[in-house]
Design goal:
Order of helices and strands of chain B: HHHHEHHHHEHHEEHHHEEHEHEHEEHEE
Order of helices and strands of chain A: EHEEHHHEHEHEHHEHHHHEEHHH
Number of domains of chain A: 2
Oligomer: heterodimer
Helix content of chain B: 55-70%
Number of strands of chain B: 12
Largest sheet of chain B: 7 strands, mixed
Radius of gyration of chain A: 29 Å
Number of strands of chain A: 9
Structural class of chain B: alpha/beta
Distance between the termini of chain B: 74 Å
Largest interface: A-B, 66 and 51 residues
Number of domains of chain B: 2
Number of helices of chain A: 15
Structural class of chain A: alpha/beta
Distance between the termini of chain A: 38 Å
Strand content of chain B: 5-15%
Number of helices of chain B: 17
Shape of chain B: rod-shaped
Strand content of chain A: 5-15%
Radius of gyration of chain B: 49 Å
Helix content of chain A: 40-55%
Chain lengths: 459, 495
């Protein structure tokens, strides 16, 4: 039998939020009203189809004092207490009376360890003790989690009380616990019993690997988005509209759709299925704006100076490659010319509003794109990295607005070496030369940066 | 099927499936590929992707690969048949002999040696030089022309079949093939050309030998150019270098060349008076046969083998580093750590029960139920109810949620039948099952007794109605009882 844990507590104290966060399931009903959960439901963590442990979401305690009164109505010794709880369960199960307590006790009587959830934002009250006692009577290993739903802070009172009934008391905020906190909690659970140690350790290791895999897969999606967006062209039928503005709008809308599709893919990688991407609201002033809004472009991406520097360097590197190919016989002319052309080209594009351009396909058709602005890939990169960071910080218990706490674009904070390298890759992708190797390079660069992101969040 | 390496049909099927996947939802792909764990060859991407491809081939007997293979085989067969016909026809045309003028060897040498050398050099230049240096001089121009051609083809294809439901799929497929496997496809095309070439030259050679048997040919040479026999001898000697070691017969002697020069005007060989019988002029044939074999047939055979090696090597060295393949490999190889459950309980929609609009003007008396250890004393509550709600507290009952709570409360309420019941509680103590039991006990006595929840908090020695109250949650919690005589006493107003 695999280890199992029943998340129990008073109604409306965040049990489902904790389960949603732990099991990365944004479809678990989480609501501020009581009795949202009416029966126990198990969530099993599997690695390659091998189940490692189960977490049960349970309904809340409703009538604990009455039940404790019932349990104590017959004097029993400590070794008979579990039997008495079982008797209670057998008596009332299916009767309609104490149905929530029967549901919550079911997994515990089947052998689940107890994770008692208390809301530390409310003051401690003695009436909770009947719940502690009932759980104590079951004889199962138990641990208390202090959740933080509201603004108040009463951890100390709660800790003093809970420590008398539970083997360990941990603080776990279902709305802020990101993946490392979840892994930490799983590791903490190993102390509950020897039997749980190995499967939980394996689960924690798998969760760490899963995070790396998700970031790698995100880098793949992000690389694909950048490559496709940089090379994107749209065929326009001028019979439908001859207005230039309509064509530009259609082109930009198609790029926006690319971005939304990629964001959905990335969100799905992190187990967010019901994220409303149209309601994305980043705290970063620019990112709550549209991909092509003026504000976005002013704050994200690189400055004109940086763009010109990178353009010059990329051109010089390209020219230098030619010099190297002729064994230096060109007296570094390639490097010089490449640098000048790259720098001037970047300066022109950075200071102008590059037209979408395009070419005629026929009398009534034309192709527009690709988008030439040198800052475009950087802005795109910044937005998606901010999106991934926000996903990493978001828990599956959170509902509503999707908020990024980023205050600065990612690209501008990169080292100049990385900037130059990425700039060179972006240029290679634009020019469509040796496409495969540039795609691979971009993917590995982004994987490297995204894996580093985790360490920064941790710090 | 069966080989543990990618064959061309496998690759075409793989790309077709990837193209199909590019139009599918990512979630569907993740679920599908996660269920294919048994095909994973740990650490071996190519073998895993091959097994993945073959998994789909089983269910698709008319796959793109199988269709392409059939078409390719048919094309190769057609090329061979065409080669045989054209090779045989060409040599027959070249050996046309009406008995008045000898067969001119110059065109034979030009077509079966010089042209073949030019074609061979062209191929070496295009294929080998490109393969070695990954570029050929003027490559940018070639690239632009090729890209323009490819784009034109795509547009034409799209405009020819605008309503084809699989238009996007075909575009994705051809784009992948042209971007990722162009050399492989080119080598296949070259191989078909070699099939034609081998068939053509083999047929030419065999027909040549057959015609020699059944005819009595006289060979000669003539040209408008002022070509001296010595020059021609030099050329033939050079051309015969690869096979001169076979013997003197393999290379025409200067004497033969001099003797077999033919003049159109005189309708005779240049050196008149000489008795040039078939025996002398026929001495050209071994050289001609060897020219066809060495410059026509042999290079084609060698090229065919080389192309086969290239194709095998390209198929063997497929690295699948493109985005879609990398994503597929990740789906198949990465550890599948997932949370499973048997089905989620759906959140219930809030009750649509309309709340009764209460009027406290009917009575100013109340009985207060202090719910679950509310740490505010009776005096403070009494004062607050009086000051803030103009309510007279007639009695106080403490309830901890025990079964006996309802009885105690009912006894008190029986004493004050006109009084409203105020449930004073902590602001987070939303009413649940325990309070419902009290409510039901109350309703058994009085169906319209007003029961109002009053969340209080203590602040600087005063009992105040809770400020930060989640009114929506309270409203939903009260509505869930579907009792119109329940309400929330909140800063002077009731729901």
């Amino acid at each position: 039998m695999i280890p199992s844990f029943a998340v129990v507590g008073r109604s409306n104290k965040g049990k489902s939020s904790i389960v949603a966060t732990l099991t990365e399931n944004d479809r678990i009903a989480v609501a501020a009203t009581p009795r949202t959960t009416t029966y126990s439901q198990g969530f099993t963590f599997q690695v390659d189809e091998k189940p490692l442990f189960t977490v049960f979401d349970t309904p809340g305690f409703e009538e604990a004092p009455t039940i404790l009164e019932w349990l104590k109505a017959v004097p029993v010794t400590a070794n008979e207490r579990r039997g008495r709880v079982l008797e209670f369960y057998n008596n009332f199960q299916g009767s309609g009376q104490f149905r929530y307590e029967c549901e919550l006790l079911k997994p515990i009587l089947d052998g689940a360890s107890i994770l008692y959830v208390a809301d530390a934002s409310h003051p401690y009250r003695a009436n909770f003790e009947s719940e502690f006692e009932i759980l104590q009577w079951t004889g199962q290993p138990s641990l208390a989690l202090l959740n933080q739903i509201g603004e108040g802070h009463y951890e100390a009172d709660w800790k003093r009380a809970l420590e008398q009934y539970f083997r360990k008391v941990l603080t776990f905020n279902a709305h802020t616990a990101w993946v490392q906190d979840r892994i930490q909690l799983i590791q903490e659970l190993t102390f509950l019993s020897d039997d749980t140690r190995e499967p939980l350790k394996a689960a924690a290791r798998a969760m760490k690997r899963q995070l790396d895999n998700r970031l790698r897969d995100s880098a793949l999606v992000l690389s694909k988005l950048i490559v496709e967006s940089l090379r994107f062209e749209l065929k326009i039928d001028e019979r439908e509209s001859t207005r230039e503005a309509d064509h530009s709008q259609a082109f930009l809308n198609a790029l926006r759709e690319h971005e939304t599709k990629a964001q959905k893919e990335i969100a799905a990688l992190f187990g967010f299925h019901d994220l409303n991407l149209h309601a994305v609201d980043f705290d970063l002033p620019a990112v709550d704006q549209d991909l092509f809004s003026k504000e976005t472009w002013e704050i994200l991406g690189l400055s004109r100076k940086e763009l010109i520097t990178i353009g010059t360097t990329s051109g010089a590197v390209a020219g230098g490659t030619l010099d190297a190919m002729v064994g230096g016989a060109s007296f570094m002319v390639g490097t010089g010319i490449g640098g000048i052309v790259g720098g001037l080209g970047s300066a022109y594009l950075a200071f102008s509003e590059p037209a979408l351009g395009g070419f005629k396909l026929g009398r009534k058709k034309r192709t527009i794109g690709p988008y030439k602005n040198p800052n475009f890939p950087w802005v795109l990169l910044d937005r998606e990295v901010a999106f991934i960071r926000a996903l990493l910080r978001r828990t599956h218990a959170q509902r509503g607005e999707f908020v990024s706490e980023d205050r600065q674009g990612f690209a501008s904070s990169m080292g100049s070496k990385y900037k130059t390298r990425l700039g060179f890759i972006f240029q290679g992708i634009r020019w469509n030369v040796k496409l495969r190797s540039f795609e691979e390079n971009l993917q590995s660069e982004l994987t490297h940066h995204l894996l580093e992101l985790v360490d920064k969040i941790d710090a | 099927m069966g080989s543990d390496r990618f064959t061309m049909p496998d690759l075409l099927d793989y790309e077709a499936q990837i193209a199909r996947d590019s139009l599918a939802e990512p979630g569907v792909l993740i679920a599908r590929d996660r269920s294919l764990k048994n095909i994973l060859v740990p650490g071996n991407k190519t073998k895993t992707l091959l097994a993945w491809t073959r998994h789909f081939q089983i269910t698709d007997s008319n796959s793109a690969g199988a269709t392409a293979k059939r078409s390719y085989d048919l094309l190769a067969f057609a090329a061979i048949v065409l080669g045989i016909i054209s090779g045989s026809g060409l040599i027959q045309a070249m050996l046309h002999y009406d008995g008045t003028q000898p067969v001119n060897v110059i065109p034979l040498v030009a077509i079966y040696a010089v042209l073949q050398i030019v074609l061979l050099l062209n191929y070496i230049f295009k294929a080998f030089v490109y393969r070695l240096f990954k570029r050929i001089p003027g490559g940018a121009l070639v690239y632009l022309l090729r890209e323009a051609g490819s784009r034109w083809m795509q547009r034409r294809g799209a405009s020819l079949a605008p309503n084809l439901p699989q238009k996007e799929l075909i575009k994705a497929y051809t784009r992948r093939l042209s971007q990722l496997h162009r050399p492989l496809l080119q080598n296949h095309a070259w191989k078909i050309i070699q099939d034609f070439g081998i068939a053509c030259h083999a047929a030419s050679l065999l027909t040549f030998i057959a015609l020699l048997f059944f005819n009595d040919y006289t060979f000669g040479w003539r040209t408008t150019l002022q070509l001296e026999p010595e020059w021609l001898h030099q050329i033939t000697k050079t051309l015969a270098l690869p096979f001169a070691w076979l013997g003197d017969f393999a290379s025409p002697s200067l004497e033969l060349i001099q003797k077999s020069q033919f003049s159109r005007f005189q309708k005779s060989f240049v050196e008149e008076g000489l008795d040039l019988g078939a025996r002398v002029t026929a001495a050209w044939w071994p050289f001609l046969a060897l020219i066809i074999a060495v410059y026509g047939l042999l290079p084609r055979l060698i090229l065919w083998v080389i192309l086969e090696v290239f194709i095998k090597s390209d198929l063997k060295n497929l690295n699948f580093h493109d985005f879609q393949s990398a994503a597929l490999w990740a789906r198949l190889s990465e550890e599948k750590a997932i949370w499973t459950n048997d089905g989620l309980e759906q959140a219930r929609p809030p009750s649509d029960q309309q709340l009764y609009k209460h009027s406290l003007s009917e009575t100013r008396n109340c009985v207060v139920l202090r719910w679950r250890d509310l740490p505010i004393g009776e005096a403070l509550l009494n004062e607050s109810l009086k000051l803030r709600f103009a309510l007279n507290s007639l009695a106080f009952v403490n309830a901890r949620g025990l079964a006996t709570d309802a009885d105690a409360l009912i006894r008190i309420l029986d004493k004050y039948p006109e009084a409203v019941l105020i449930v004073a509680c902590d602001p987070w103590e939303l009413p649940g099952e325990a309070l419902d039991k009290i409510r039901l006990a109350l309703r058994s006595r009085n169906k319209t007794k007003l029961m109002l929840f009053a969340p209080f908090e203590e602040h600087e020695g005063q009992a105040l109605p809770a400020k930060a109250l989640n009114k929506t949650a309270w409203q939903h919690a009260i509505q869930a009882f579907r009792d119109p005589y329940l309400g929330l006493l909140d800063a002077g107003e009731s729901l």
